[in-house]
Amino acid sequence: MLINFWYPVILSTELGDQPKKVRMLGQDFVVFRDAGGKAQVLSNTCVHRGGSLAGGKVAGDNVQCPYHGWEFDGKGRCHRIPSLGKDAKIPSRARVDAYPVEERYGIVLAFLGDLPEAERCPIMEIPEFDDPGWRPSWINYQVPINYERSIENGLDPAHNEFVHPSHGFSGEDSEYKVNDLRWVGDHGWGPGFFSKFKSPPSKDKDFAKMKQATDSREAGSGTIGANQLWTYIRFAPGKAMHQYMWECPIDEYNVNIYLVNLRSTFLEEEMDEKVNSMNWMIAEQDIHVLTKMHPMATPETNTKEYMMPADEPILRYREYQKQWEAKGWRIDVDEVERNRRKVAYAIPSPGRRTAKGWVLDSIPLKPVDQAAQVAVKSAAR
Ligand code: FES
Ligand SMILES: [Fe+2]
Q1: Which pLDDT tens digit goes with each residue over 138-190?
Q2: Which ligand is nearest to the CA of 62?
Q3: Is 70 in the pocket of ligand 1 (CB under 6 A)?
Q4: Does the reported pTM lie above 0.85?
Q5: Residue 66's pLDDT is what?
Q6: Which atom of ligand 1 is nearest to the CA of 68?
Q7: Is residue 95 classed as helix, strand or coil in its secondary structure?
Q8: Sheet of 62-64: strands edge to edge?
Q9: Would you tell me how many other CB atoms lie within 10 Å of the CB of residue 138?
Q10: Ligand (nearest to CA of 65)
Q11: What is the DSSP code string of 140-164?
């Protein structure tokens, strides 16, 4: 798991006037709306004596700890320590990590890391979102899958024929092969590609209209950063699904997936449920395979798997992972696990770059391997 990316926290519609606890990167966070309705994300551990902020309540612009009533604002600053009495001066160390938040496309996203704004991976854009020719719908689900395995599945053109009966001939097409990949849009944050494929017309009477005439279609996928994935499926001219997924590791072996599906056909609201249930059915087909993979996480070296040309997008994604690891962004999960019952860690927030004296330890990160750094730099040349 990597710090320094934008992670999905909660659907906008699910964040009301109560604070909520959300587990991301193996740590707990509190998300709440301040008095102005702006979503705020803080480390969940109260620095007084370890209370769970999410168990408290919203008080104006602050979240109030349920244990002794300390109040923290969206920047993580404490404004009230009731035991000191009214008008008491609040010490500057009374603060928790606060993370940059953006609410986009119906999802609250938090940047979990300490990178300055100019160096951050961009939030994936949905250019069609406000276009009346497209209609969005959402599904959100948690599954016991390592998030890298999940993203790699989205970058895998060879699984569709076998895993998704609606996307191929279930291995019964003797002419089947993965066609050449057409590479697109790598802007320094991940690979992207398109490939042509064949699939049968849909058996569903509504979707059959979308997948009529031709059996030659095109699909593409790509990543932006560690956990943002897009997939475009072009069924027929003018009929497409553009899917945007934000994936958040709950921990090493569980992922929380937010899918925003844009469709250029069946624009009626009544079709949302049908489209969502079709997407859920397709997700279940992936989940069926992905929950049984061994090992659950990606192996430490690619030599422990036997890659083919169709796996090239996955290899490219792994190269990016290595680059980010060489920047020191990978969490040392073994060290965190060793201290799980004894130490409360915080994912470092941008505030740690300027202020000293934080109460909680920053989460342990994998030491940067100098050799790997050199190798990554020369590969980039
Ligand atoms: S533990 Fe939060 S106020 Fe005491
Ligand atoms: Fe799939």
Answers
A1: 999 999 999 999 999 999 999 998 999 877 777 778 888 888 999 997 789 99
A2: 1
A3: yes
A4: yes
A5: 98
A6: 3
A7: strand
A8: 57-59, 62-64, 71-72, 78-80
A9: 17
A10: 1
A11: EEEESS-HHHHHHHHT-TTSHHHH-
